[in-house]
From TrEMBL:
It comes from the Bacteria. The lineage of its organism: Bacteria, Bacillati, Bacillota, Negativicutes, Selenomonadales. This is Amino acid permease. It comes from Selenomonas montiformis. It is a multi-pass membrane protein. It is found in: Cell inner membrane.
Length: 451
């Protein structure tokens, strides 16, 4: 396999605190603030167990990616590893699948920015706010990787601070609210029990919960630009998982204890409910600011990760050669322009044709995260076999390999099955073979062009 030479290298400007917030910010999105009510409706108080199960699976998958990233910290991450240890098509598939997924996610977040700004400025055109966000974030990413890391650090910190405030305020209500402590904790098993919708409801809830963790694999994309990757990547992976579980499970535990599960999110977002009960009149404004920040944060990470994925694909000759060149600051400028430019086109299409083609594309994006996780899991198996053949030890070994790899694969296949049982997710599963066929056609065309 021929890799292109590149005299200018990417700069290792991301510190441990950047990696921590990038990983946390990528996995904590608007779903926790707005979408948690629908997840609670599926499982009731057992939604806490759903986050524990999903978080455990993601932890093991991240350890697999972390072992490969520490052993060989490169841009392009799991796409590079899939090509090297599995084959050209798996690397092509994983890279373009990840890129396409994040293009769609960034389109949605860019559109959301316009909607959130209209909360304060109803007459502001949605396209105008989206355009300003696109220009600012693109400029931030063009300068250097450290500026991106700083920007994402503070955006993610706002989201995390909001969650911490929600937990603290919720605990205050638990111990001093109208219901006497500890009687209010009986909400965890009253109203149908801890599993009001049975194990089936829990399984459906786990399926929805898994998409809350989409984006955490971004930490692997940063490996090529992390300072001292031997130490920063393991620390980021080991620390970020228990923090996410604390935020998600902690928030759900507080909500389930405060109110009967079938009343959470009925009047407003659970976030607004807590702040309104405490007596904060600006609860809706606070929430809007937080979700606006969350949308900008996800768009920022999407532009960053997509440009690095395009660069990684180009260095393997699986994307156009011009995308494999860096600026003098070590930034893949062309990949940034391509990724942000496509989101601009799609936002325009969404403006002229709302609720049509865009939603069909988004249904494909919902399943793309599971494809990425499957590629990581299978590639790690092949990586370990290669290490055994060479008789070498890795620095950051993933635990319980290979048994946990097969369990994770079975779990992800199960997610596909349960997606067919949820009307809003069913279309993504039916479109999966079509999407894989398109990727195969793209790969064959690329191979034909290469001769």
């Amino acid at each position: 396999m021929k890799f292109m030479s590149e005299p200018i290298k990417m700069k290792r400007g991301l510190k441990n605190r950047h990696l921590q917030m990038i990983a946390l910010g990528g996995a904590i999105g608007t779903g926790l603030f707005y979408g948690s009510a629908s997840t609670i409706a599926l499982a009731g108080p057992a939604v806490m167990l759903a986050y524990l199960i999903g978080g455990a699976v993601i932890f093991f998958i991240m350890r697999m990616l972390g072992e490969m990233a520490v052993d060989e910290p490169v841009s392009g991450s799991f796409s590079y590893y899939a090509t090297k240890y599995w084959g050209r098509f798996p690397g092509f598939l994983s890279g373009w699948n990840y890129w396409f997924n994040y293009v769609l996610v960034s389109m949605a977040e860019l559109t959301a920015v316009g909607i959130y700004m209209q909360f304060w400025y109803p007459d502001l055109p949605q396209w105008a706010a989206a355009l300003v966000c696109l220009v600012v974030i693109t400029a931030v990413n063009l300068i250097n990787v450290r500026l991106y890391g700083e920007f994402e650090f503070w955006m993610a910190l706002i989201k995390i601070s909001a969650i911490v405030m929600m937990i603290v305020m919720g605990l205050y209500l638990l111990f001093s609210g109208p219901q006497a402590f500890p009687d209010n904790f009986s909400n965890l098993w009253r109203n149908g029990g801890f599993l009001p919708n049975g194990w089936w409801g829990l399984a459906l809830s786990v399926t929805v919960v898994m998409f809350s963790f989409g984006g955490i694999e971004l930490i692997g994309i940063t490996a090529g630009e992390a300072e001292d990757p031997d130490h920063t990547i393991p620390r980021a992976i080991n620390q970020v998982i228990w923090r996410i579980l604390l935020f998600y499970v902690g928030t759900m535990a507080v909500l389930m204890a405060l109110w009967p599960w079938n009343q959470v999110g009925m009047e407003a977002s659970p976030f607004v409910q807590i702040f309104s009960y405490v007596g904060v009149p600006a609860a809706a404004h606070i929430l809007n600011f937080v979700v606006l920040t969350a949308a900008v944060s996800v768009y920022n990470s999407a532009i960053y990760s997509n440009s690095r994925m395009l660069y990684g694909l180009a260095t393997k000759e699986e994307a156009p050669e011009f995308l494999g060149r860096l600026s003098g600051r070590g930034v893949p400028v062309r990949g940034i322009f391509v990724s942000s430019g496509i989101t601009l086109i799609c936002v325009a299409l969404n403006y002229f044709f709302p609720g049509k083609i865009f939603m069909y594309l988004m249904s494909v994006a919902t399943i793309a995260a599971t494809i990425s996780w499957m590629v990581i899991t299978i590639t790690h198996l092949k990586f370990r076999r290669q290490c055994r053949r060479e008789g070498r030890e890795t620095k950051f070994r993933a635990p319980l390999c290979p048994v946990i790899n097969y369990l994770c694969l079975a779990f992800l296949i199960g997610i596909w099955f349960f997606m067919t049982q949820i009307p809003d997710m069913r279309l993504a599963v039916w479109l999966l073979p079509v999407w894989l066929l398109l990727l195969w056609a793209g790969y064959r065309f690329r191979e034909y062009r290469r001769g």
